[in-house]
Design a protein that fits this description.
Helices cover about 35% and strands about 20% of the residues. By secondary structure, the protein is of the alpha/beta class. It has a single domain, classed as Rossmann fold (3-Layer(aba) Sandwich). A 7-stranded mixed β-sheet has the order 3-2-1-4-5-6-7, with helices on both faces. Helix 1 packs across helix 6. It comes from Heyndrickxia shackletonii. Pathway: Purine metabolism; IMP biosynthesis via de novo pathway; N(2)-formyl-N(1)-(5-phospho-D-ribosyl)glycinamide from N(1)-(5-phospho-D-ribosyl)glycinamide (10-formyl THF route): step 1/1. Belongs to the GART family.
């Protein structure tokens, strides 16, 4: 069984859908740890309700990203974590974790990347007046939502959509697509060293 840590900064609806998928047997993984950078985030409560340990840190208490990522890396190593699953984590992952978990950090983003990277992708899509948006699951690199795309699903924006209704419909896709996609990745062992697998 794959040991995963979920990184989140907010309410944690994607965290919950991953936990639910594990409990229902749809996702063959074990959520060993929640990593959260906001002490008042609702996702911490969700972790408690599900008996999942949380590592909560305040980035301002550290001198640098390297310093707090080293602390996170220690927590992950202690638990034998194999994959980092970002679910509404609002910080860029730095070199420390990227090196340690190369090709094993996965993110979900509420747009059809490369369109509307960064914060408030749903608001960006509405402001731009586009008729199509969706959800992207991708590997994480050092850029902002720039890593290799694993899966995408599109969604038509109607004239009646508001940021709220669109967010709701996007969450529905996210909660269904993320667990399925993660299971596919775990089944094939990710893209780790795939270029060397000529054996």
């Amino acid at each position: 069984m794959v040991k995963i840590a979920v990184f989140a900064s907010g309410s944690g609806s994607n965290f919950q859908s991953i936990v639910d998928s594990v409990q229902s047997g749809q996702l063959d993984a074990s959520v060993e740890l929640l990593v959260c950078d906001k002490s008042n985030a609702y996702v911490i409560e969700r972790a408690e309700q599900n008996g999942i340990e949380a590592f909560v840190f305040n980035p301002k208490e550290y001198q640098s990203k390297t310093e707090y990522e080293k602390k996170i890396a220690l927590e992950l190593q202690k638990r034998g974590i194999e994959y980092l699953i970002l679910a509404g984590y609002m910080r860029l992952i730095g070199p420390t974790l990227l090196r340690e978990f190369e090709n094993r950090i996965i993110n979900i983003h509420p747009s059809l990347l490369p369109m509307f990277p960064g914060k408030d992708a749903i608001g960006q899509a509405i402001a731009a007046g586009v008729s199509l948006t969706g959800v992207t699951i991708h590997y994480v690199d050092e850029g902002m939502d720039t890593g290799p795309i694993i899966a995408q699903e599109s969604l038509t924006i109607t004239e009646h959509d508001t940021a709220e209704t669109l967010a709701e419909r996007i969450h529905e896709i996210e909660h269904r697509l993320y667990p399925i996609t993660l299971q596919t990745i775990f089944n094939r062992g990710g893209v780790r060293h795939h270029e060397k697998s000529a054996h």
